[in-house]
């Protein structure tokens, strides 16, 4: 046990002494999060709003004036029902508010179960649409709050009903970062010993491969947990990701995924002899499939059928799916059991193979 | 003949078409300082890697302290101290961190066998906070030797420890090896330098994977020739045999 602690200490020293790499490893998640969070800005300005109403009334005029006084929106006149699609398509309006026939009677509760207002949005820029929807709904709710009737607004987003918005990237970034930090960094760590010749001395000692692997994993594991914490805090407080799902589930599945990523790095490390090759393998063989097949950039449903099977063997796909469910859809741990078990099995498998392939001789 | 510590019996090792070691047999006695003298590419490093169980022989049997190099390799790794030809310590760790780490690999602390490494380590101790990568060549060798000795091995295997080290440090290094005699450690050390052979109890001359002669340095040089001349004569002789064999085919 003491032996292992010294080994872990030594591995940690390697990491701490290489300050530049350490800063990159800690900095990348923050930079990526802020980049994806704010470069794809959800701030909106001057979204033009058209109104479609079968009749004018005092309450409708009040709502329209509220919207036109809001600095985020410009009121763009009244349109006919048939023109809604037309104005959105020609980008004359970013949103159209459609009032129902008998708006006043519905809002005062005399026709129960009817929707009073509909918001139709141009979803070609999903972030603008999402914010506009949120703000318009807010304004309408405020205006209707006096009537004591809620849930009378129905919104439709055209063209991009999935509403991929900025915080949808967070699970993807998590999936990528752990591969980056865990797999890339650990893949170098064993190969470096081979290249420097220290592996030769290390092997001529009672230390067993499993201890080498564990000792190499622990510091990167700690570092990754630190990254996980930073990302979750940034996601929650800087980007406003809902994270209403099970927090324990988020942490648990992330930990298993981190171990899986570490296992990948170690496997690459064990089978290669040069740092350069290890980097290339973990870069090309791990990063590219994650970007392509995990649903991080493109929804997996949209892939051609020949490529679809690949998504099932990319661990990041399961992780990102699970994290979306937990962080954005707010589901409970039991809803991600499938993803969780798949990642567990993959992690155990990878570690076993890495251990098996560990050569405790030089040839 | 003293009790053997290392026995090599008919060891052959090939890398593809190249025969690195060809039917090598030798014995190193307990507590003996045995030199392996030969030019680059003679097969010295391969021999060390077989003894340290890092490689497996194609033919023959190697035994270290009664343990077979193939079957008992895990046991052998506990009792040998190995210093590879290339400087193989952690350059980003300090002198004392390296020593502490290598002691811990064997489940000990540097203090446990301090009196044995003291004559060597005390020379670099003033620089114990310095990173190993910033040491001079001579100091690196001393640190590497300290690390190889820190778990008090029964057998010390040193692959060209003095290559690339200045003359004064080389001489000091051999003094240190001589100082280890009193602990009864068997030492197998290789070197390409003829002048160092005289510091060994016995030497083996090796060239192109074959042992040409095993004897005390004095016996090898006693017919009035220097060690170097003997070596060159033996190599030529071996080549001659080879040529005659070729012609007879």
Characterization of this structure:
The complex is a heterodimer of chains A (363) and B (249). Chain A contains 14 helices and five strands. In chain A, helix 3 links the parallel strand 1 (47-52) and strand 2. Residues 159-164 of chain A have low confidence and may be disordered. Chain A has two domains: 2-39 and 166-357, no CATH class; 47-158, abc type-2 transporter like fold (3-Layer(aba) Sandwich). Helices cover 63% and strands 8% of the residues of chain A. The two termini of chain A are 29 Å apart. Chain A has a five-stranded mixed β-sheet with strand order 2-1-3-4-5. Chain B has 249 residues and is α/β, with parallel strands linked by helices. Chain B has a single domain, classed as Rossmann fold, CATH 3.40.50. Helix content of chain B is 36%, strand content 25%. Chain B contains eight helices and ten strands. Chain B has helices at residues 44-51, 73-79, 95-105, 114-124, 137-149, 167-179, 217-220, 227-248; strands at 4-15, 18-29, 33-37, 59-64, 67-68, 80-83, 155-158, 186-191, 202-207, 210-215. The N and C termini of chain B lie far apart (40 Å). The mean pLDDT of chain B is 91. Chain A binds chain B through residues 2-3, 6-7, 10, 13-14, 17-18, 196-198, 200-207, 361-363, and chain B through 49, 52-56, 74, 77-78, 80, 82-84, 86-93, 97, 100-102, 104-107, 147-148.
């Amino acid at each position: 046990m003491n032996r292992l602690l010294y080994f872990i200490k030594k591995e940690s020293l390697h990491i701490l002494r290489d300050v530049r790499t350490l800063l990159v490893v800690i900095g990348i998640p923050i930079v990526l999060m802020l980049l994806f969070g704010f470069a794809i800005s959800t701030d909106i300005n001057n979204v033009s709003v058209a109104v479609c109403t079968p009749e004018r009334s005092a309450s409708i005029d009040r709502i329209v004036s509220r919207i036109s006084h809001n600095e985020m929106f410009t009121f763009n006149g009244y349109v006919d029902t048939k023109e809604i699609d037309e104005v959105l398509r020609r980008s004359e309006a970013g949103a159209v508010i459609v009032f129902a026939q008998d708006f006043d009677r519905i809002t005062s509760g005399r026709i129960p179960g009817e929707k009073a207002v509909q918001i139709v949005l141009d979803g070609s820029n999903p972030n603008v649409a999402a914010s506009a929807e949120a703000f318009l709904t807010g304004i309408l709710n405020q205006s209707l709050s006096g009537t004591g009737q809620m849930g009378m607004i129905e919104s439709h987003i055209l063209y991009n009903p999935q509403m991929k918005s900025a915080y949808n990237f967070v699970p993807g970034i998590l999936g990528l970062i752990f591969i980056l930090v865990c797999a890339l960094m650990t893949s170098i760590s064993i190969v470096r010993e081979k290249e420097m010749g220290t592996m030769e001395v290390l092997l001529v000692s009672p230390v067993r491969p499993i201890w080498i692997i564990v000792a190499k994993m622990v510091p990167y594991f700690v570092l990754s947990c630190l990254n996980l914490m930073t990302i979750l805090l940034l996601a929650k407080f800087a980007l406003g990701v809902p994270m209403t799902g099970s927090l324990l589930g988020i942490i648990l599945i992330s930990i298993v995924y981190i171990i899986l990523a570490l296992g990948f790095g170690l496997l690459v490390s064990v089978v290669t002899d040069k740092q350069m090759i290890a980097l290339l393998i973990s870069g090309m063989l791990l990063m590219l499939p994650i970007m392509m097949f995990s649903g991080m950039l493109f929804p997996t449903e949209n892939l051609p059928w020949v490529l679809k099977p690949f998504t099932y063997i990319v661990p990041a796909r399961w992780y990102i799916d699970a994290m979306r469910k937990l962080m954005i859809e707010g589901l409970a741990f039991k809803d991600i059991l499938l993803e969780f078990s798949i990642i567990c099995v993959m992690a155990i498998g990878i570690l076993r193979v890495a251990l098996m392939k560990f050569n405790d001789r030089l040839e | 003949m003293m009790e053997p510590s290392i026995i090599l019996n008919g060891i052959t090792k090939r890398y593809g078409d190249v025969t690195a070691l060809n039917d090598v047999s030798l014995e190193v006695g307990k507590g003996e300082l045995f030199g392996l003298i030969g030019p680059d590419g003679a097969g010295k490093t391969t021999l060390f890697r077989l003894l340290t169980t890092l490689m497996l022989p194609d033919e023959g049997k190697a035994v270290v302290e009664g343990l077979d190099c193939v079957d008992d390799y895990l046991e052998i790794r506990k009792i040998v101290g190995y210093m590879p030809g290339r400087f193989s310590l952690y350059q980003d760790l300090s002198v004392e961190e390296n020593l502490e780490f290598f002691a811990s690999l064997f489940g000990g602390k540097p203090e446990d066998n301090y009196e044995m490494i003291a004559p060597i380590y005390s020379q670099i101790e003033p620089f114990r906070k310095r990173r190993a990568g910033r040491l001079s060549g001579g100091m690196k060798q001393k640190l590497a030797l300290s690390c190889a000795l820190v778990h008090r091995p029964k057998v010390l295997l040193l692959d060209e420890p003095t290559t690339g080290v200045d003359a004064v440090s080389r001489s000091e290094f051999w003094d240190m090896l001589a100082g280890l005699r009193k602990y009864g450690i068997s030492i197998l050390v290789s070197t390409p330098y003829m002048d160092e052979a005289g510091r060994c109890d016995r030497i083996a001359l090796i060239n192109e994977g074959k042992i040409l002669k095993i004897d005390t340095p004095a016996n090898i040089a006693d017919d009035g020739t220097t060690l170097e001349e003997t070596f060159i004569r033996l190599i030529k002789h071996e080549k001659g045999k080879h040529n005659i064999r070729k012609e007879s085919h």
